[in-house]
Amino acid sequence: MQELAPGGIAPPFARYSHGIAADPGRRIVVTSGQLGVAPDGSVPDGAEAQARVCFDNLDAILAEAGGSRADVIRINAYVTAREHMAGYMAARDAWLAEADRLPASTLVIVAGFTRPEFVVEVEVIAAVPA
Fold it and tell me: What is the pTM of this model?
Protein backbone atom coordinates (compact mmCIF):
# COMPACT_ATOMS: atom_id res chain seq x y z
CA MET A 1 0.00 0.00 0.00
CA GLN A 2 1.16 3.52 -0.70
CA GLU A 3 1.00 6.60 1.52
CA LEU A 4 -0.18 9.63 -0.42
CA ALA A 5 1.69 12.80 0.53
CA PRO A 6 1.39 15.30 -2.32
CA GLY A 7 3.73 18.25 -2.44
CA GLY A 8 2.12 21.64 -2.24
CA ILE A 9 -0.18 20.90 0.72
CA ALA A 10 0.57 21.21 4.40
CA PRO A 11 1.83 18.04 6.12
CA PRO A 12 -0.50 16.13 8.46
CA PHE A 13 -1.01 17.63 11.93
CA ALA A 14 -0.33 14.33 13.71
CA ARG A 15 0.44 10.62 13.08
CA TYR A 16 -1.65 9.98 9.98
CA SER A 17 -1.34 10.10 6.19
CA HIS A 18 -3.27 12.40 3.88
CA GLY A 19 -4.27 9.33 1.88
CA ILE A 20 -3.57 5.65 1.26
CA ALA A 21 -3.74 3.68 -1.96
CA ALA A 22 -4.51 -0.01 -1.42
CA ASP A 23 -2.78 -2.61 -3.56
CA PRO A 24 -4.78 -4.86 -5.92
CA GLY A 25 -5.71 -8.24 -4.46
CA ARG A 26 -6.79 -6.94 -1.08
CA ARG A 27 -10.20 -7.34 0.55
CA ILE A 28 -11.82 -4.28 2.15
CA VAL A 29 -12.90 -4.72 5.78
CA VAL A 30 -15.10 -2.04 7.37
CA THR A 31 -15.74 -2.11 11.11
CA SER A 32 -18.54 -0.66 13.13
CA GLY A 33 -17.60 2.04 15.58
CA GLN A 34 -16.13 0.52 18.72
CA LEU A 35 -16.88 2.00 22.12
CA GLY A 36 -14.67 1.52 25.16
CA VAL A 37 -16.54 -1.55 26.43
CA ALA A 38 -14.21 -4.26 27.77
CA PRO A 39 -15.06 -7.97 27.31
CA ASP A 40 -16.50 -8.05 30.85
CA GLY A 41 -18.85 -5.16 30.01
CA SER A 42 -16.95 -2.58 32.04
CA VAL A 43 -16.23 0.91 30.71
CA PRO A 44 -13.00 2.49 31.97
CA ASP A 45 -12.84 6.15 32.93
CA GLY A 46 -11.14 8.56 30.58
CA ALA A 47 -10.60 8.95 26.87
CA GLU A 48 -7.20 7.25 26.70
CA ALA A 49 -8.37 4.14 28.59
CA GLN A 50 -11.54 3.91 26.52
CA ALA A 51 -9.61 4.39 23.27
CA ARG A 52 -7.21 1.59 24.23
CA VAL A 53 -10.22 -0.73 24.65
CA CYS A 54 -11.58 0.46 21.28
CA PHE A 55 -8.25 -0.39 19.62
CA ASP A 56 -8.09 -3.78 21.37
CA ASN A 57 -11.57 -4.53 20.01
CA LEU A 58 -10.49 -3.43 16.54
CA ASP A 59 -7.45 -5.73 16.74
CA ALA A 60 -9.82 -8.64 17.44
CA ILE A 61 -12.14 -7.75 14.55
CA LEU A 62 -9.23 -7.37 12.14
CA ALA A 63 -7.79 -10.72 13.24
CA GLU A 64 -11.19 -12.34 12.61
CA ALA A 65 -10.92 -11.05 9.02
CA GLY A 66 -7.37 -12.37 8.63
CA GLY A 67 -5.77 -8.96 9.00
CA SER A 68 -4.08 -6.71 11.52
CA ARG A 69 -3.56 -3.06 12.32
CA ALA A 70 -0.88 -3.03 9.60
CA ASP A 71 -3.73 -3.38 7.07
CA VAL A 72 -5.68 -0.33 8.29
CA ILE A 73 -6.03 2.35 5.63
CA ARG A 74 -8.40 4.72 7.48
CA ILE A 75 -9.32 5.57 11.07
CA ASN A 76 -12.46 7.53 11.93
CA ALA A 77 -12.65 8.60 15.55
CA TYR A 78 -15.18 10.55 17.56
CA VAL A 79 -14.78 12.19 20.98
CA THR A 80 -17.37 14.05 23.00
CA ALA A 81 -15.22 17.08 23.87
CA ARG A 82 -11.92 18.77 22.98
CA GLU A 83 -10.42 17.70 26.29
CA HIS A 84 -10.71 14.06 25.16
CA MET A 85 -8.62 14.59 22.03
CA ALA A 86 -5.22 14.23 23.73
CA GLY A 87 -6.13 10.95 25.45
CA TYR A 88 -7.52 9.51 22.24
CA MET A 89 -4.46 10.62 20.27
CA ALA A 90 -2.10 9.08 22.84
CA ALA A 91 -3.88 5.72 22.49
CA ARG A 92 -3.95 5.99 18.69
CA ASP A 93 -0.25 6.88 18.53
CA ALA A 94 0.62 3.94 20.79
CA TRP A 95 -1.48 1.63 18.57
CA LEU A 96 0.40 2.90 15.51
CA ALA A 97 3.84 3.05 17.18
CA GLU A 98 5.33 0.28 15.07
CA ALA A 99 3.50 1.11 11.86
CA ASP A 100 5.55 1.10 8.67
CA ARG A 101 2.85 3.22 7.05
CA LEU A 102 0.31 5.51 8.67
CA PRO A 103 -3.38 5.32 7.73
CA ALA A 104 -5.55 8.24 6.75
CA SER A 105 -7.41 9.55 9.80
CA THR A 106 -10.25 11.82 10.86
CA LEU A 107 -11.10 12.95 14.40
CA VAL A 108 -14.48 14.61 15.06
CA ILE A 109 -16.02 16.11 18.18
CA VAL A 110 -19.61 14.94 18.62
CA ALA A 111 -22.41 15.83 21.03
CA GLY A 112 -22.47 12.41 22.68
CA PHE A 113 -23.08 8.68 22.43
CA THR A 114 -25.82 6.33 23.63
CA ARG A 115 -24.59 6.37 27.24
CA PRO A 116 -23.00 9.34 29.00
CA GLU A 117 -19.93 7.41 30.19
CA PHE A 118 -18.79 6.84 26.60
CA VAL A 119 -16.37 9.57 25.46
CA VAL A 120 -14.63 7.88 22.47
CA GLU A 121 -15.69 5.77 19.50
CA VAL A 122 -13.32 4.45 16.81
CA GLU A 123 -13.93 2.67 13.51
CA VAL A 124 -11.47 1.56 10.85
CA ILE A 125 -11.32 0.56 7.22
CA ALA A 126 -8.68 -2.01 6.34
CA ALA A 127 -7.41 -3.63 3.14
CA VAL A 128 -6.47 -7.16 4.19
CA PRO A 129 -4.73 -9.71 1.98
CA ALA A 130 -7.32 -11.63 -0.05
Answer: 0.93
